[in-house]
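So, can you check?
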Amino acid sequence: MQFNHYLNFQGEAEAAFNFYKSVFGGEFAMLKRYGEMPSDGKSQLSDAEKNYILHVSLPINEFTILMASDTTEQFCAANSPFIKGTNHYISINLEKHEQAEAQRLYEALSQNGQIEMPLEKTFWGALYAAFTDQFGVKWMVNCQLVDE
């Protein structure tokens, strides 16, 4: 199990992560844009939003990966508006053999909290959930289901 910092931006993730890359060095392990998402017929993104960062990850060292995404009004939880500088998650990352642990952590940490996205399979090959716990701390649980 690995804990990482997950940051949210509003259209500034790419600029921020190019800056962080210049400071920490290294290469992006992943960079995906909203325009690469499967079309679900519900999402109406502007051309600018299609270029926003859906997910970027920058390994800092063998223990830490800094991750982020841009958020839009459409994908921002109604009970969790974007406030610059405060939209930060703790991301718990698990391996594919730890699915039961992912479920346990999700159920325990989200108890009496607010669910942004329930734990479910995603198009990127993981079980994933996002929520705020009863103390106002934002969490993500991400359990890889396929080999990367």
